[in-house]
Specification:
The complex is a heterodimer of chains A (about 425) and B (about 180). Chain A folds into three domains: about 30 residues, no CATH class; about 180 residues, Sulfite Oxidase, Chain A, domain 2; about 120 residues, Immunoglobulin-like (Sandwich). Chain A has seven helices and 23 strands. In chain A, the strands form six sheets. In chain A, strands 4-3-12-7-8 form a five-stranded mixed β-sheet. In chain A, strands 5, 6, 9, 10 and 11 form a five-stranded antiparallel β-sheet that branches. The two termini of chain A are about 35 Å apart. With about 180 residues, chain B is mainly alpha-helical. Helix content of chain B is about 35%, strand content about 5%. In chain B, strands 2-3 form a two-stranded antiparallel sheet. In chain B, α3 crosses α6 and α5 packs across α6. Classes of the chains: A mainly beta (about 425), B mainly alpha (about 180). Chains A and B meet through β3, β4, α5, α6 and β12 of A and β1, α2, α5 and β4 of B. β14 of chain A pairs parallel with β4 of chain B.
């Protein structure tokens, strides 16, 4: 009774009706509780204790409990804005995740020409252009180089479309779900570039995918030699097909689109190629009509994931406020939380590890007294950048710029505990 | 004894060379040189100065026919869009409160048209158009935007010279560090 609001293991009825698929079910007091058979509760002996359970390897590749069937990637509430399902997005269920790691099956997707089915034995990486030795590598070659593993977030440039009037029905999966964080393993790109001998006059690098969109972005040479990875594994296993199997570029802190998946070619040159994805798309129209392109780094940002849109606080009393913060410029140094719409701010605890260009989990204990509350979080990164309010961001640019919305997210808690998006 | 010591020394030396650690920045001897044929097949990018444009040419009239057959279903008979991106129209709207982004109103370089059509279009059959066909479709899309005349024929020399109205609005937010590359 005391912890009714944490009823995560939804009842069988909820699973069968699909009601558990909604994030709100996680925090809502289960009305099904009264209807649940009581024979499995004390003092009864639960049915799952009265006989042995499933065998090992059922199945060989483990799956979440069927009671977690609602924890899945989704398209936006209200329907996908994309006319095709191959050039589209799916969103990470941030409201259902608990630390900083995104499980591989829940990593957000943004594809421009679908997910190719690539046989790694027939995949090649060519590096050419302004290099001393144009080279071709097999996946076996790539796996022989000295490797490293690092934890980094990826955020789609178009994550969070709160420019206009907020849609109260949106969940944090809708507003911020183009955000994931994994441990990535691969070869530092510098190692391979040194092997091919990049010429002094090279200033930019074209990265090209082997998908049907042949995705291409121009990358500054500084980034290529800094912390770029040729990644072939995420969270300990080889990349998922939708994350670029068998090989992707990973550019920590840069907008997600630049971490080109299914990487097949790197070309060194003197100037950017002005590809469609860095001119027609991923560029910002500023209020004066100018267009800013090559806006690479994702700025300081945070969001409360619990409580968040679509959830419901069952009763007044203790509730931990928790969320994630991140910055493409480095480490998060501070997250402040307000429960009164920005009147008073309290420092949240930053859970270790706190790593550069990685999600940081923050937590703040809270006693909801009942009545309306407006929950907000504000991140500061190690460069001193502070996440702006929506009003402050709108003074610089607006919906015409579309990308890189990093303003403070507000969740409205109603008197009955219902939480809605307040933009 | 002396022989034994020699063998031991030789063994130690050979073990040392076997287990010598690789150093950062060294040549790992991994991979092989890419042949010019291999590179040519994948080297499909086109730069704003026209580098990468292949031989061939295409006219607005040829492009109109290809567009009707392979593009109009997604982009509209006259490139007006729906269900996919609008390719024509929107001239002069970019600096207004309701910008309409199309090839003509927004794109800064005509060469991007060739690059993108060849690599990614038609959506269901990318890299299927011949160079002549890509030049022709590029010409037709530019014609729809009143940027080339109805009798235009585009090739590697003329395409990069097509003046794009929004070119000067583009500003790079990234400034490379001065000096030589890292």
């Amino acid at each position: 009774m005391v912890r009714r609001y944490t009823n995560k293991s939804a009842s069988r009825r909820e699973i069968l009706t699909g009601a558990a698929s909604l994030a709100g079910a996680a925090l809502a007091a289960s009305t099904a509780e009264a209807e649940t058979p009581t024979s499995n509760l004390p003092p009864g002996v639960p049915e799952w204790q009265q006989q042995p359970g499933a065998e090992v390897m059922s199945p060989p590749y483990g799956q979440p409990s069927p009671f977690e069937a609602g924890v899945i990637r989704r398209e936006r509430t209200g329907g996908s804005p994309y006319p095709t399902r191959q050039a589209a997005v799916s969103l990470t269920p941030l409201q259902d995740l608990h630390g900083i790691i995104t499980p591989n099956g829940l990593h957000y997707e943004r594809h421009h020409g679908g997910v190719p089915a690539i046989d790694p034995a027939q995949h090649r990486l060519i590096i050419h252009g302004l290099v001393d030795r144009p080279m071709i590598f097999t996946m076996a070659d790539i796996l022989r180089f000295p490797a490293t593993s690092r934890l980094h977030f990826l955020e789609c440039s178009g994550n969070t479309q709160n420019w206009g009037k907020p849609d109260a029905a949106l969940t944090v999966q809708d507003t911020h779900g183009l955000l994931s964080c994994c441990e990535w393993t691969g070869v530092p790109l510098k190692t391979v570039l040194d092997a091919v001998g990049v010429r002094d006059e090279a200033r930019w690098m074209l990265a090209e995918g082997a998908d049907s969109a042949a995705m291409t972005r121009s990358i500054p040479i500084e980034k290529a030699f800094d912390d770029a990875l040729l990644a072939y594994a995420q969270n300990g296993e080889r990349l998922r097909p939708e994350q670029g199997y068998p090989l992707r570029l990973l550019l920590p802190g840069y907008e997600g689109n630049t971490s080109v998946k299914w990487l097949r070619r790197l070309k060194l040159g003197e100037a950017p190629w002005q590809t469609r994805e860095e001119t027609s798309k991923y560029s910002w129209i500023m209020p004066d009509g100018s267009v800013r392109q090559f806006n690479f780094v994702m700025e300081a940002k945070s969001v409360i994931t619990s409580p968040s849109g679509g959830q419901k606080l069952a009763e007044p009393g203790f509730h931990e406020i928790s969320g994630v913060a991140w910055s493409g410029h480095g480490k998060v140094t501070r997250v402040e939380v307000s429960t009164d719409g920005g009147g008073a701010w309290s420092d949240a605890a930053l859970q270790e590890p706190v790593l550069p260009k990685c999600l940081t989990r923050f937590r703040l204990p809270w006693r909801w007294p009942g009545g309306p509350a407006l929950l907000s979080s504000r991140a500061t990164d190690e460069t001193g950048a502070v996440q702006p309010s929506r009003e402050a961001l709108l003074k610089q640019r607006d919906a015409r710029s579309y990308y890189h919305y990093n303003a403070i997210q507000n969740w409205q808690v109603a008197a009955d505990g219902a939480v809605t998006n307040a933009g | 004894m002396r022989a034994k010591a020699f063998i031991a020394a030789a063994l130690a030396a050979s073990l040392l060379s076997i287990s010598a650690p690789a150093r950062a920045g060294e040549d790992y001897g991994i991979g092989r040189p890419a042949t010019s044929e291999e590179i040519a097949g994948w080297n499909i990018d086109v730069a704003p100065d026209g580098a990468g444009l292949p031989p061939g040419q295409g006219s607005v009239a040829q492009g109109a026919q290809i567009f009707a057959d392979k593009c109009a279903a997604c982009h509209g008979d006259h490139g007006q869009g729906k269900p996919m991106d609008a390719l024509a129209g929107g001239a002069g709207t970019i600096a207004t409160p309701k910008p309409v982004k199309t090839v003509g109103s927004y794109w800064p370089y005509a060469t991007t048209l060739y690059d993108f059509i060849h690599r990614a279009m038609p959506f269901n059959a990318p890299q299927s158009l011949s160079p002549d066909e890509v030049y022709a479709v590029s010409a037709y899309v530019l014609f729809l935007n009143h940027l080339v005349p109805a009798d235009a024929i585009l090739d590697a020399k003329t395409l990069p010279k097509v003046a794009m109205p929004n070119r000067d609005a583009f500003v790079s937010a990234f400034t490379p560090a001065p000096g030589k590359a890292p």
